[in-house]
Each structure stands twice: as C-alpha cells, then as structure tokens.
Amino acid sequence: MKFFVDTADVAAIAELNELGMVDGVTTNPSLILKSGRNILEVTKEICGIVSGPVSAEVVAQDADDMIAEGRKLAEIAPNITVKVPLTWAGLKACKVLSDEGFMVNVTLCFSPNQALIAAKAGATFISPFIGRLDDINIDGLDLIADIRHIYDNYGFETQILAASIRTVNHITECAKIGADVITAPPAVIKALASHPLTEKGLDQFNKDWAATGQKIL
Ligand code: G3P
Q1: Which residues are marked as active site?
Q2: Active site located where (predicted)?
Q3: How far is the CA of 55 from the centre of ligand 1 (A)?
Q4: Rounded distance from Cα 163 to ligand 1 centre (Å)
Q5: Phi/psi of residue 207, each to 5°?
Q6: Does the reported pTM lie above 0.85?
Q7: How does DSSP classify residue 138?
Q8: Mean pLDDT, 10 residues at a time, the chain of 217 residues
Q9: Which residues line ligand 1 (CB under 6 A)?
Q10: Residue 36 exposed, middle or buried by CB count within 10 Å (0-12, 13-18, 19+)
C-alpha cells in the first residue's frame, strides 16, 4: 500500500520523506488555505521534494475551465496529478486530461457508483472520503470495500486512494481491504508508530538500564 501525505505543509512532507514514507502528496483548496502559500509556488516546492504523484486540485466549475486549469497545474512538474471533483463536469475534464496523458485524481467520492463512473472516465486515482461519511454515521470503510470489490470484478486499473483519513484504525482497515493508496495528515501517519505498550516497555528498560550503571558509548 502506498502512503500519500495529505498536506501542503512543506516541512512536514520533507520530514516524512526523509524516512521514505512519502509515495505521493495530496492537496486541496482547504489545505492550500491552511498553508498560507500560493498554490503554484507551494506545489512546485512539494514536487521538488517528492518524486511520486502530487495532486493539485482545479477550482473551476465547468469542464472547459477545469481542463485549462488542469493543463496549467500539470506544467508545474511531470509528477503533478490533476485533481478534479466528482461532478459531471469533473468527469468530462478527467476524460480529456487522462486522454492527454495526465494523471487524474477524481475527488469527493462518496458512493460506489461514483467510483465506477470515475473509472469509466479514465481516472488514475479515485478518492473516496472515509471520515466525512463517518461524520454522517455511514461507515466510510464499507465504501472502500465496495469499490475494491467492484474494481476487482472488472479489472479496472483506477487506483483506490482512500482519503479523509482521521485515525490509524482507518489505515489498518484500508490495508486489510486492499486500498491501493491511503492519504493521511502527517500526524496520523506518525501515530502509526505509537503503541502504549512500546512506551511502557521502554520506560522500564530505561529504568533498568540506569540501575546497571553501564554505558554503551
Ligand atoms: O484528501 C481529502 C482530505 O483532505 C479530506 O479530509 O478530514 O477534511 O475530511 P477531511
């Protein structure tokens, strides 16, 4: 399973990248706002750090303008993935941009049928939002499992990019289901390393080591 980082925070991306944890990056207009940076500048900087796909999202409402924005975003670097919303206009833009050879991430997916139609439109990635379904008391992980099932039934090559990940449990379950990619905030990725028994065990080792009076260096 690939790990994408869901942020436009360059320092956080660089820190995780040093550990080989970053297979790609996803951004969206809300994350650009949070970064306080210009979209073209920050996206270029991210592409200078990460060699895998970096999603940059269009903001136009109609297909022609989405296509124009997508082409402009794709000029930033060869690893740009153009992110379009799962609307009819977004699907039209997806088809045109993917036919032109660009990677396309279709975002804001909340149903298996939306994922099916995005695959038909040539999406490289489909982004089902787990946390936002959980927010309205619908199990977001069921959506990941349904899409996996449907894509496998027909051999669709669109990659399932599980998004709106809020907990480490979401990542565990996505790995069990077989999502191709997860995108998560840096804090959630770092939390994968945490376990209370690890901390408890280390405390005990540290105390016992101090009691030995020994040194390694
Ligand atoms: O990748 C989509 C993600 O940024 C949405 O996450 O937590 O705002 O639902 P969230």
Answers
A1: 83
A2: 83 (schiff-base intermediate with substrate)
A3: 13
A4: 6
A5: -65, -45
A6: yes
A7: S
A8: 98 97 98 98 98 98 98 98 98 98 98 98 98 98 98 98 98 98 98 97 98 98
A9: 6, 26, 28, 129, 131-132, 163-164, 166, 183
A10: exposed
